[in-house]
Design goal:
Elements lengths: L2 H13 L4 H15 L8 H10 L5 E3 L7 H22 L9 E2 L14 E2 L3 E2 L2 E3 L5 E3 L6 E5 L2 E4 L9 E3 L2 E3 L8 E6 L3 E6 L5 E4 L3 E6 L7 E12 L8 E5 L2 E5 L3 E6 L6 E7 L2 E5 L10 E5 L3 E6 L2 E6 L3 H4 L5 E8 H12 L2 E4 L7 E7 L4 H10 L4 E4 L2 E4 L1
Parallel strand pairs: 4-12, 7-12, 15-16, 25-28
Antiparallel strand pairs: 1-26, 2-3, 5-6, 5-11, 7-8, 9-10, 11-14, 12-13, 13-15, 14-15, 15-18, 16-17, 17-20, 18-19, 19-22, 20-21, 22-23, 24-26, 27-28
Helix pairs in contact: 1-4, 2-4, 3-4, 4-7
Length: 390
């Protein structure tokens, strides 16, 4: 269904002009979500969430909705997602145990059940001597400046200090190569010594020097990262990932190179990049080289590459704090949830072939996302941190 259709039904509800059938379905779904003791639906929260958290996810299917009953059921569920988001947000502080429970009834007498919270800023910095430094989750990123490492706020990183002009650990070992790693459910940023900015998605590792020397700047990524590369004359920037090297001068692009994915995807946002892809079983001098222009993506499947124009939001929405699906398969969508919510997914039957289109904020809890699957007719149940797709 479209946003306009949802908006019209929301307007009817807020105006008190829903039909008895519409009201009965909405209240029934609301009770099923919050329990028999739930209070009245919070109209103010509903209106606020329509403005702030509107989500429009639909299943791309050849089946048409033929009856008013089906239309109303889907519309009512969409409305509930908005109130559900409001109900969940007030239970989320910084309880990072992975679950949230609340018996707070200050908003309409609601009781939130156990839920899995979304990911947040968390990462580990590994120094050249192997020492690991857990970075502050209250910070969004770090900066390498004058061979010192600080948080973006200007604060010092505990466990790392400047000594004799070189980044050292407390053991006093000179640091030449650093690693920034995010776990599942984590994200973090780093500004490199040349001014290049890198955003790391969940379950990713960036390896980079404390300062760039020589005639090139080289880093290595596993997982997913967005790069905004500073232009340095006569000093190209190279990004190594699984089975490929990306050469740039000054540009912004995204690389998705998770080990468990069948291919590496490089998406160009601005500027120009050159991608050299190679088969691991062949000499690197037999690599295939492709130049991209903004809006293009190269898909590297073990040296066999495909270049195509895409909606760049599908590649970089995560950087802005959103999920963005466009004809996305259920399996690909689940991979994003696995990394962001740190869950495991088990399919109890063949994976459904439907595709999905829509967007929603990544700061929503897992329970909110799963409500979207209900709208699409996907059957599932959650046990701990394992999601079973029935």
């Amino acid at each position: 269904m479209t946003k306009d259709e949802v908006d019209k039904l929301i307007d009817k509800y807020l105006a008190g002009s829903c039909t008895p059938e519409e009201m009965a379905l909405i209240e029934k779904a609301y009770t099923a979500t919050y329990g028999e003791n739930a209070g009245e639906i919070d109209k103010a929260a509903l209106e606020q969430q329509r403005k702030r958290v509107y989500t429009s996810l639909r299943r791309n299917s050849t089946k048409k909705i033929r009856t008013l009953q089906n239309y109303i059921r889907i519309a009512a569920a969409a409305i509930l997602l908005l109130t559900l988001a409001s109900a969940l947000y007030f239970t989320i502080s910084h309880n990072r145990s992975g679950y949230s429970q609340s018996s707070d009834k200050s908003k309409g007498g609601r009781t939130a059940q156990s839920d899995i919270l979304p990911g947040y800023n968390q990462a580990t910095l590994t120094l050249a001597d192997g020492k690991k430094v857990l970075l502050d989750s209250a910070q969004s990123g770090i900066i390498v400046i004058n061979e010192d490492i600080k948080y973006q706020s200007g604060g010092s990183v505990t466990g790392v200090f400047l000594s004799e002009g070189r980044v050292k650990s407390p053991r006093g070992l000179p640091n030449s190569l650093l690693s920034l790693t995010t776990p599942k459910g984590g994200q973090y940023q780093v500004t490199l010594s040349d001014g290049t900015k890198v955003w790391l998605n969940a379950a990713s590792t960036l390896k980079y020097p404390s300062r760039f020397s020589g005639n090139s700047r080289e880093v290595e990524i596993s997982g997913e990262a967005f790069f905004d590369v500073a232009q340095v004359k006569d000093k190209p920037f190279k990004v190594k990932s699984r089975r490929q090297v990306v050469d740039v001068l000054g540009t912004s692009f995204n690389i998705s190179a998770y080990a468990e994915d069948p291919s590496v995807k490089t998406t160009l946002i601005t500027g120009v990049v050159q991608v050299s892809a190679y088969d691991e079983n062949k000499p690197k001098n037999q690599s295939i080289i492709k130049r991209l222009i903004p809006g293009q993506q190269v898909i590297n499947h073990n040296g066999e590459i495909e270049v195509k124009a895409i909606d760049i939001n599908t590649a970089i929405a995560w950087k802005s704090g959103d999920f963005y699906f466009k004809n996305t398969t259920l399996e690909d969508m689940m991979q994003q949830l696995i990394r962001w919510y740190d869950i495991e997914v088990t399919y109890k039957s063949p994976i459904p072939k439907e595709t999905f289109t829509g967007d929603m904020p990544r700061n929503a809890s897992l329970r909110t996302v799963l409500e979207l699957l209900k709208i699409s007719g996907i059957r599932f149940h959650l046990e701990g941190r394992r999601l079973y797709i029935d």
